[in-house]
């Protein structure tokens, strides 16, 4: 079955009718996108509210599965951890009880990105030419980029052990353990990052490495492994040499990764941001189809 226009139109007139139809469709789509922008602003404001410092916050359990290596909890209020308590029973560290309040730079950056997204929506609605397809397209591309970056902060990619990961430039926060509890050991590194509706705690025990030293095991350590006197603590960063912020070269002697219990607010935030990102992507694709342009998503 074929579709044809009857009565038949001359080619020039047919082209004019097609252009007029495309112009009407484009005009309707641009008006529709203004309504979409209003909905996006409302959704972004809801996401921003989920990061507001409202008590009592979310108390999350930190417990290593099938072992007593890490036990404790943290309380998140907004973008900060206001209370954290950990009991550590690691193989290369004496039993340690610490209280700490680490920073969550990922959530602070996420809040800044949400502010940028809200500004982008307001600028798109109230400045520039709302009937210009190229202007709206560029603004949607910017908004999509901001939302994609926001989602990446909630589920950051894993870091290769051969590169210098972010934890090397993020100092472990000072201990807030009340007296007579001593500060925790200087070779202890703690990082806390958001991931898929929870918080990931990474505990590392560091050992210094001399300049020019290779990341191979020492002779005594190899012999201890061979006779079974010492068990090799295998992890993904065991062979790397890392440079800390002060220039000190270290190896990661022991590493334990613990995922907290689910954070309801973070789960809702991730779902809402994902829905907003897909809405903007759909708007970009629709606008590209009408304008005859290919959209990279």
Automatic annotation (TrEMBL):
It comes from Lachnellula cervina. This is Regulator of V-ATPase in vacuolar membrane protein 2. Residues 153-188 are annotated as: Disordered. The gene is rav2. GO terms for cellular component: RAVE complex. It comes from the Eukaryota. Residues 176-186 have a biased composition (Pro residues). Pfam families: Rogdi_lz. PANTHER family: LEUCINE ZIPPER CONTAINING TRANSCRIPTION FACTOR LZF1 (PTHR13618), PROTEIN ROGDI HOMOLOG (PTHR13618:SF1).
